[in-house]
Design brief:
By secondary structure, the protein is mostly loops. The chain contains 1 helix and no strands.
């Protein structure tokens, strides 16, 4: 039995063949719990010469 005028597969159009499509709800973000941290027991690291690292030396003149 050949379909008249149309070749190949086609989607069924009967009401009994319909698929009910509903999208799932969007995922929810997890709640963020901010925990207050205690400072380190030994204190924070303080490098001895931090100012020397960022100190600007005298500007050099460029040769033209």
């Amino acid at each position: 039995m050949e379909p008249s005028g149309e070749e190949g597969c086609r989607t069924p159009k009967r009401s009994g063949c319909e698929i009910q499509m509903t999208c799932p709800p969007a995922p929810r973000k997890k709640q963020m719990y901010l925990k207050q941290r205690d400072p380190p027991e030994n204190g924070y690291f303080q490098p001895p010469d931090l100012e020397m690292v960022f100190a600007m030396g005298p500007r050099r003149e460029t040769c033209v």
